[in-house]
Amino acid sequence: MAVRVDYVARETAANLRRNLLLTTASVMTVAVSLSLVGGALLLRQGVDNATGRWQEGVEFEVFMNADARPDQIDAVARELQQDDDRVERIKYVSQAEQYEEFKLLFNDTPEYLENVGPEVLPSSYRVVPTIKDAEAIQALGRAFETKAGVREVVFAKDTVDTVLRVSNILNWGILIVAAILLFAAALLIFNTIRMAIFARRREIEVMKLVGATNWFIRIPFMIEGLVQGLVGAGSAFAVVYLLRNAAQDAIRSVQIFDGFVVTTSQVASTGSFMIGVGALIGAMGAGVAVTRFLDV
């Protein structure tokens, strides 16, 4: 017996209406759990963005004052270059280059770009030392804190270790709660499908007697679970997207996360993942329910 699209749509809608309370609970549980999953993934991406400047072995960064004179900037460069026993290489990042990095990170926050220009951002030297001893690196960096024109020296180890430690604790906590809620969502979808099958058991028996195939009976129930998962995932994506800027600003208000940012493309890719997971959870919950409780 061929499965018609209009039949599947009609039966799916009827099942969703018939178990409206359980359907709503399933959708809300999927939405909450996937919001947490999405939040954890975006937190990790934001931390990666915040620590991106420490790639390629950079151990500390010497920030100059925004109004530092050229001779002060050159003096710091000469001193770093002359200390070739302890310094492997340096990279000068001009105010214009700092601004390009700033625009890349904050390209979806126009109010920041309107109020910040290259002239207010400090140039810097990113330093890769030859030495590996943490105390020696600290001593090397501290020696530049009192140089003329230097604003501050920021160390990779202090910044990265603190950021990663805090973010890892948050990530694990969020993901554990999300996993529990995802399991609860799958159980709710399972129970919704089971009740729909039980409510229609007489109708299903008649359908079997007149020649309906197993898949003809199964498909509307499986689509019902899929719809619940997709609606919950879509709601979660909407919540994450709408709250992204507010959450980002709140996180950046904590000093160690001042470089935290999540780009629009990262939000979009995370949203796609969330929708895929929601569809999978819905399909799995429905598939198990149909297989276990539909007598075929």
Secondary-structure content class? alpha+beta
The total strand number stands at 4
Give the SSE string: HHEHEHHEHEHHHH
Please, what is the average pLDDT? 79
Oligomer designation: single chain
Major sheet: size, sense and barrel closure?
4 strands, antiparallel
Uncertain segments of ≥5 residues (pLDDT<50)?
none
Radius of gyration, in angstroms, nearest whole number: 28 Å
Domains (count): 2
Q: What global shape is seen?
A: elongated
Q: Beta-sheet strand percentage?
A: 5-15%
Please give the share of residues in helix.
55-70%
CA distance, first residue to last residue: 15 Å
Summed up, the helix count is 10
Order of adjacent strands in the largest pleated sheet: 2-3-1-4
Task: Provide a short characterization of the protein structure.
The chain is α+β, with helices and mostly antiparallel strands and 296 residues long. Helices cover 70% and strands 8% of the residues.
Write up this protein.
- There is one protein chain.
- This protein is an alpha+beta fold.
- The protein is 70% helix and 8% strand.
- It is built from ten helices and four strands.
- Strands 2-3-1-4 form a four-stranded antiparallel beta sheet.
- Helix 1 (5-18) packs across helix 9 (214-252), helix 2 (20-50) packs across helix 9 and helix 7 packs parallel to helix 10 (264-293).
Layout of secondary structure:
Layout: H1 5-18, H2 20-50, E1 60-64, H3 70-82, E2 87-93, H4 95-105, H5 110-115, E3 124-129, H6 134-142, E4 150-155, H7 156-199, H8 201-209, H9 214-252, H10 264-293
Antiparallel strand pairs: 1-3, 1-4, 2-3
